[in-house]
Amino acid sequence: MSLLEVKNLKKYFATQKAVDDISLSIDKGNIFGLLGPNGAGKTTLIRMITGIFYPDSGEIFFDGKKFDPVNDVGLIGYMPEERGLYKKMKIGEQTLYLAQLKGMSRKDATAKVKDWFVRFGMESWWNKKVEDLSKGMSQKLQFVTTVLHNPKLIILDEPFSGLDPVNSNLIKDEIFRLAANGSTIIFSTHRMEQVEEICNRIALVNKGQKILDGTIKQVKQDFKENLYSIGADSLPDTTGNEPYEVIGKKEQNFIVRIKPNDKPNDVLQYLLQQGVSISSFNEILPSLNDIFIKLVEGTETARQFQNIKN
Predict the structure, then answer these.
(1) Would 297 be classed as within a structural domain?
(2) pTM for the whole thing?
(3) Which of 133, 202, 238, 242 is the most exposed place for a label (fewest CB within 10 A)?
């Protein structure tokens, strides 16, 4: 069952189509990657989901009913890429204040804040000011203030920015824990390797439009190019009759593309018949980064071509 569904959402600024007829559905407990280059419309879409902007047209449904910005915003935690903390305010006092803005009592907020501060090794920060924190420390604090009230929907925009590997793993583990406990998470980043590691499903937007939507596994399958890595000392001389085309060599592995009418078993059988000793045989799936670049550049090229024709 979906926690969040947006239907035909549009938001225009003067002549700019920031969000142009986007529809998405995000299931409960899912970690959903919202991807796109700078200026793609991600931030505008997030601001409509959080009630900061109203859409020009389209609908948003939250937890099975039409989204109500007044009542539903307390069920959302939003961590923007830019810091949203008061620099002069003491950290403990500020965290309690933000928790109470989300509807928590001071007693419950105090208990929760102390629990998170212990979990993140932040006990000594209580009387410090935000301006005294490094970027990474501020990022940890902002994550805590985002998830403190147990929101149903958590939106994280570049949550690992400024974090060292140890604290990145700490945040990553908490993201998995929150999702396992039922929170739905929208994860927006430019780091494709993090998306592959963390997300279940992704959507790619560009120039205000959705150009890709699916599970990571399915997306990789859809964009694979029939490439395989073969571990062998050598391959037979090319005759034109082999069921593959050699693309290149990487260390002790030959990179081949299997021909359209052939299958991996055909390649294995052919090589064994030729007396080749095979140590490994693996399919090469494209990375999300490769797919991202291909699609973004492809849509831009298509638009430029269309403009020339017109």
Answers:
(1) no
(2) 0.86
(3) 238
